[in-house]
Structure formats: C-alpha cells, structure tokens
Fold each of these.
Amino acid sequence: MTWHASEPPPWPAIKPRAWPRILVRLTALSGIMAFGLLLHLLLRLVERPFFGLRRPLTPGVTQIVCRAVLKVMGLRVQTTGTPLRARGALVANHASWLDIFVLNAAVRVYFVSKEEVARWPGIGFLARTTGTIFIRRDRKEAAQQTQVLEDRLRAGHRLLFFPEGTSSDSLRVLPFKSTLFAAFYAQGLRDFMQVQPVTLVYRAPGGADPRALAWWGDMEFAGHLLRVLAMPYAGQVTLILHAPLRISDLPDRKAMALACETAVRAGMADPSARPENR
C-alpha cells in the first residue's frame, strides 16, 4: 500500500468495548470546539475593526483548543527545536488531518490550503474562521494568489503550507512543489523573510499498523476519526522544527523548495524521531 493507492488498507473493525470511549471523546471534542469557536468569533468582532489583517488575540484561542483536542484523543506530542520568530513561513510534510491540530498546538500559524477544503462541511467553516488562505490550482490565478500571500506576510502572519500537495501514509516524504515559495521572493520580502522546515513523524501505538494515524488516498474522514478515537492510546508524534532558511541565501523558489525538502527528509530518517511503541 503506497500513498497514492486507491483503496485504503483493511483496518480491523472497531470492537464493541471501544464505543463508550468513542462517545465520551466525541462529546468532549464537540464541547471544546464549540466553546473555542464561539470565543474565536467574539474576539474577531474586536480584532477585525481595530487590527485589520493582524490577529493578536484569536491565534491563542486556536492553540489552546488544539492542545485540548490532542489531550482528549490521547495523542502525545514531542517537540524539538525552536519555532520561527522572524517573519516568514513554515513548511511541513503532510500525513493526516491530525497535522492541523499538532501544528496549531505547537506554533501560531495560518494555513495555506487547497480551495476545495473551503467547501468541506464543518471543516471549511472552521478553516475560514481561523484565517486559512485558500489557493485554487489554476495558473491563471497564480499572480493574484501570490499577492494574497504577500499581503498576509507583510501583515506579520506566519504562514504554513504542505509543499507535497497531498497527504502520504506517514512513512515517507513526497517531492516538494515549488509554486507557493514564489511569494517569498517578492521585492521587499526576500531580504528579511525566512522559511522553517518542519518534520512530522508519527508513531502508532503498540500493535497497530504503523500507518494507523495517516489519512491519505481515498480514506473517509469519519471512519478514520472513529478509529483514532477508539484507540486507548493514540500514539505519539514527534515535531521537529529545523533551523530556518533565509530567503536571501537561496537563488530562487526551486532551490528553496529543494532545501526544505532535504531538511524534512533528514528529520524523517532520524531514528531518534521514532520512539519505542507504548
């Protein structure tokens, strides 16, 4: 089974004794996210007229909510390295919908996502509310979308995107696409912008398929969510924050994409990033 296969692996059926755990966790997650969303919307009423594009309050709410969600799921996060402090962006490998919670819990960022996500029921609304930038895969709109990224960067936002363009089975890193890196080379930005590569390394709980936390191919979101919630312990993810790269040190977007991909692959290959099963 590879990341691009059309059929998901034959996951075992959820055992009856796991359903009480699933229901308790679903109830807790619903309450946490509903409260966080309400607080977020109220704070936006203050942020929007007084701060414009800048959001000094709501990213903290997102971070707290995501940390609480991971706690309920039983997914432990181990972080190494220091988050980017300068203006710029983070780029990471993409393995699962869990990536969103893990990254938001660790660093205050705004995601760059494919335009289709904006139309997903529930998830699309949450993404728009938290400031996600949606990109349409259309060459005719490339210049306009690059301008949107530039505007957000100039406003001091730290962006985060997945240069692979799709999710994998969590055991590999796919080739990085260089398109979105072009915004960092705009006049007036390249002299001070930095990009921080980030590696996400998932470790499933003992006895589970090593790809159990990955969500890729044609997997259904609801089914995968229930399988994760059914686990007594959902495993661990190691978040490796690599040294930031200065835009001015690399000649173009393709060189930057390759440098970031190399760093992320090195993190994936590091045996210390994959702790023993629990």
Note: The CA atoms of residues 118 and 124 lie 4 Å apart.
Amino acid sequence: MMTPMLRTPEPRIVQGDDRRLARERMVRQLSEGEHAVRDRRVLEAMRKVPRHLFVTGQHMTKQAYGDFALPIGHRQTISQPWVVARMSELLDAGPDHKVLEIGTGSGYQTAILAHLARFVFSMERIGALSREAIGRIRTLGFENVKIQAFDGTVGWTGVAPFDRILVTAATPSPVPKPLLEQLAEGGRMVVPEGDRERQRLIRYTKTAHGLEREAFEAVVFVPLIGRLGWQEE
C-alpha cells in the first residue's frame, strides 16, 4: 500500500510579517521606474522605519504602505512614501550633518532623517501632533532627534546654523528669510515652493557667492502656516 505524501502546511504569516513584506514591496517600488529613487541610504532608511506606526486607526494602518498621502488629523497629512524618499534624496543629509525640519507632522519624515543625519531638530506648530511625534520617536529609540512645538517659519535660532533644512509644507515665494539665514554656507534646503494649491520641489544651495536654486518635480502639500508663511483660513 502506497503511503500518501503529506504536504507541509504553509507557514502562517502573522501581521508583523505582512507589514514587513509590505514595507519591502514599498521600497522595491520606490527604486524602480521612471521616477526611481537611487540613493541607497534613503532606501535603507525607508526600509527600517515602520510607517504603520505613524498613522492611527486600523483602516489607516492597513493603507500605511501604499504610495499615497494619508490624513493624520488637524487637517494635516503624512506625505506619500515617494515624496518622502525624493525629498530626502534631494536633501542629501550625511552622517555628520545637523538638519532642521519644518513641519514634523506624524514624525515619519523625522524618523527617516534620523537614520541619515547626525542630529535632527524638528518644528511643528500643532502641539498635539508634536506630542504624538515625540512619543513615536521615543518608542523607536532615536536619541538624535529634538522636536519643538513652535512656528517653524522663524526657524530655530538657538541651534542654528544647519547643514540641511527640509520644509514639509507648501511655502510661499520668497522662502521665509530666517530659514535662509540659518542655512550654513555649503548647506542645502529642500522646500515645496509655490502657491497654496500647487508647488514645485526647490533645492537651494548656499555658496560664498549667494544662493543657487534648482527646480524639480511638481507636488501638492498642505500650506506652511505661520508668521512668515500662509495665514490660517
């Protein structure tokens, strides 16, 4: 009598594995196609940071690794992964750099920068969001990040100058003067500059002769509200 072959049961994928696979798929998609992100350090940071921890609610958690923005409350959003990766790539923050981030939001971009830079100073005007972001950053064990609830349009004079500045909200032109003043010589700033409806990613490089300005992709961000930004509607 022939003994039937027993099939080895398929391993059950637990929720954590699902999220890990979704994150790997997200990173793979970011590295492919016409608008691929090429910076390996940025892609590795995106691989390490669990994006699902930066959204709230089961429905949002399930969508955390889709390439689109998601609401985080207070009329704010967590940017789509490609935008986070692209801005990080343009910023080119190195392991010796001190970075200023304007617009902490959920803290996701902050966490990516924490993997790339030596120090990250992040400003968020909405107190509830800053407190939530601080909790997430602490949970993940980052010790090189400081978050302050304040108007980011005036910058952070007490710890300036900065090697890199990243603005994560739609910024009017011209860019708030304090931010340009707080950028170190040789430093870079990446900012979505334009009107309240549509912007373009702009990279400023401060040289001994002034500012160099480069324009990149069109984007849409929530407005940068503050004394030197847009007024709240």
Note: The chain has a mean pLDDT of 93.
Amino acid sequence: MARMARNLERAPTLIPLDEESDIEERGIKGRAGRYYATTSELFINMTYPAVGAMREQLEKEYAQAPEPEVMQLLVRSLTRNSMIQRVGLAVVFALAKRINKEWDEEAMGKALEPESLSIAADNYFDSLQDARRSLGKRLNIRRVETGSADEELEPA
C-alpha cells in the first residue's frame, strides 16, 4: 500500500491569476499556465488570449439577451471556468502518464511545460457547446442558426 501511495499524484491546487504583475512573476506572460511539481500548484493566466476569444464569441452570440449585464457576468464566469478546466485537465492527464512505464521524466516534463499547457488552453472550441447550453438555460434563450454568419436568439 505504501508503494502504491507513493505512485499516486495529488490533484494540483488551481490558482487563477488576473494581475499582470502576478503573471509576469510566474513567468507565464503569453502562456496559459505553469505547474510547480514541488508544491503541486497550477498557476493559470486568466489574461491568456483564448479566454478573451471565447468570451468575445459568446458575447457576440448572446448580444440580444434581455439582460446584457447578467449575460456578460455569466459569460465571464463560464470562460474562466472553461480555461481553468482545460489547463487543469492537461496537468492531470500529464501526471497520470507517470503510471505509463513508457513515459520517462523527460517526457513528463515536456507535457507539463507552459507551452504544452498553452496548446491545451487554445482549444476552447470544444468548450463552446457546453457554455452555450448553460447560457441558453440560464438566460432562457436559445440560439437559432440562420444559415448565415449572423446568428439570432429567440426566447426558449
């Protein structure tokens, strides 16, 4: 049991950063995050471009919401949570590779580099559908595809 417990990783502590000074201090300006194995802390750059891109996309799609302030708060929360989840899962999956005997420490280190975490963060497209569902349900709005680039919203 003791040997098995040594091989288990513990989930990282997730620490979102919004202040430029904190982001620069952690060396993640232009990167999605940085994982520190010694403390099991994951610092996440909430100013990373994928967060803003996802937020802009959702705000554009739900611009016709009856309460724009509420919609913007929900979008901000959903995009932040999505970023935390994408980067956090990348770390968790990388740590799980330690069980795989074909992954050495060098390979593990590469998977946990800020650049690898950034690649995981960039794929926000898979997170859009869940965010849209949540927004539609909470705002009582559903998006109607019009067949053009413009999309309209109708009450649900």
Note: The chain has seven helices and five strands.
